[in-house]
Amino acid sequence: MEYRKLGKTDMNVSVLGFGGSEIGYEHVSLSNVKKLLNEAIDVGLNVIDTAECYVTSEELIGEAVGKRRKDYYLFTKCGHESGWSYPDWRPESLQRTFQRSLKRLKTDHVDLIQMHAVCDLENLDLVTGKGGSLEAAIRAKEEGMVDAIGITG
Questions:
Q1: Closest C-alpha among 112, 34, 99, 35 to residue 73
Q2: CA-to-CA distance for 21 and 75, rounded, in angstroms?
Q3: C-alpha R_g of the chain
Q4: Cα gap 124→56, rounded to integer Å
Q5: What is the bridge-based pairing of β-strands 3-5 and 73-78?
Q6: Helix residue ranges per DSSP H, the chain
Q7: In whole angstroms, what is the distance from residue 82 CA to residue 87 CA?
Q8: What are the 10-residue block averages of pLDDT along the chain, 153 residues in total?
Q9: What 3-state class would DSSP assign to 137?
Q10: How many angstroms separate the CA atoms of 133 and 15, rounded?
Q11: Catalytic residue positions?
């Protein structure tokens, strides 16, 4: 497996990662997720990426490999507390999301939290502006729940 440094972080990540969208939306069985993720980690994949709005993805990942947490980098995304179609960048929504994601993923921190699908300038201001959701992510980092922060668009 090939690895690369991720941006300005200290993470040395596999060039192949696992994206958790489909396991949540397609209602994949826990036994299949356990087999898939454990075998992927065994061969060197060390990035698992998901999001709060991928239906059951976070829960499946937590159940499947939560006990192997030191073997992979865990990324999740926020900004859609009530589902993909309902973006919500209020800091209080993100605080609830962070707590819920940690519980679902069976961990005390994620390696990267990403503001999910910030696709227009109006949302970008809600994320990066004074009192915006980025400040909530920074607080989560200061509290040790998050190691790095990113934005997807």
A1: 112
A2: 12
A3: 15
A4: 27
A5: unpaired
A6: 21-25, 30-42, 57-65, 91-105, 121-128, 133-142
A7: 8
A8: 96 97 96 98 98 95 97 94 82 90 97 81 64 83 94 78
A9: helix
A10: 29
A11: 54
Amino acid at 32: N
The reported pTM is 0.91
Cα–Cα dist 53/21, whole Å: 9
Residues 6+ apart with CB under 8 A from 83: 53
Beta bridge partners of 48: 18, 74
H/E run at residue 44: none
Query: Backbone dihedral region of 138: left (phi > 0), alpha (psi from -120 to 50 degrees) or beta?
Result: alpha
Distance CA 51, CA 84 (A): 10
Q: Pull the structure tokens for residue 143.
A: 């509290």
